[in-house]
Amino acid sequence: MPNELEKGLPFVTRKMLAFEGSATFSLIIKSTANGTGNVLIQGFTKEGPFTLTHAPTTDSVIKTESFALPDIPIMLTLVNSNTSARQGDMYVSVSLAINGDIVQELASGYIYNKKSVSWPYQNDKDLRLAGGQISLPSAGATAAGAEALITVPAGQMWRVIGGRATLVTDATAANRRPHFVFGGIFDCFASVDQTASLTRTYSLGKYGGLLDDVDDNDILVPIPHDIWLPAGNTFVTLTTNLQAGDDWGTVFLDVEMYFH
Fold it and tell me: How do beta strands 218-222 and 199-205 pair?
């Protein structure tokens, strides 16, 4: 049982619990990451300070790990060991478990080079409020005569900001009209065709209005606001009159990625 001094403390320790003899304490760490770096858990209990290391996956798959503690933590902080980590690279939560059962989530949030999460709760606001990771997923190498495809990985959800794609047409006389399809729902395309033996770059964006559809080798393609693509959804080119020698070169999206 606690002594009179311990009764006035602003935190709870093992000695304050009637079931202290049968209690085991642990921290449950859950992480989701799309970048490198470990989670450093630093804090202290009444027994002394501790430093723990949790290694997340790098493919947005949730990883859970338990760390035994001698007592209830008084303070703790979760830090990303990668000093170049960006907002949205890694999301973590830490919970207190007694006898293996979670009794309270202590802290959660993104951790990166300018932000950690801690308990007791601090003013842990992100640099961009409610912002995810800004990234540029690409279609990779696409064979001649084939359409380009980008698939949202498991554990992620994308908010589409824009995109860019380059099409090189062969000498076959035909009018091509590229379509850009998001999630099998939004079909976006330019107002002009691309003819034979040309290289054209398509810039996808949320344009309020197009004063000039084409300039030099660039073609503007308006896309809707707030396109969200959950895991497994696709971004694909569907080109009217695509020829066997036509080649989609560089194709990428500009997205804000959230763990899902």
Answer: parallel
Cis peptide before 120 (omega within 30 of 0): yes
Q: How far apart are CA 86 and CA 89, in angstroms?
A: 6
Predicted pLDDT at 179: 98
Q: 41: which strand partners?
A: 52, 78
Please state whether beta strands 133-135 and 25-33 pair in parallel, antiparallel, or not at all (unpaired).
Answer: unpaired
21-32: pLDDT as tens digits: 899 999 999 999
C-alpha R_g of the chain: 26
Asked if 97 and 26 count as a contact pair (C-beta separation under 8 A), the reply is yes
> What single-letter amino acid sits at 85?
A
pTM of the predicted model, to two decimals?
0.86
Question: With 0-12 CB in 10 A as exposed, 13-18 as middle and 19+ as buried, what is 116?
Answer: buried
SS3 4: helix
Q: Mind spelling out the 3-state secondary structure of 230-249? A: ECCCEEEEEEECCCCCCEEE
Is 37 exposed, middle or buried, given 0-12, 13-18 or 19+ CB atoms closer than 10 A?
buried
Which listed CATH number (2.60.60, 2.60.40, 3.30.450, 1.10.10) goes with 4-119?
2.60.60
pLDDT tens-digit series, residues 9-52: 667 888 888 898 899 999 999 999 998 999 999 999 999 999 99
**Could you tell me the fold of the domain covering 133-259?**
Jelly Rolls (2.60.120)
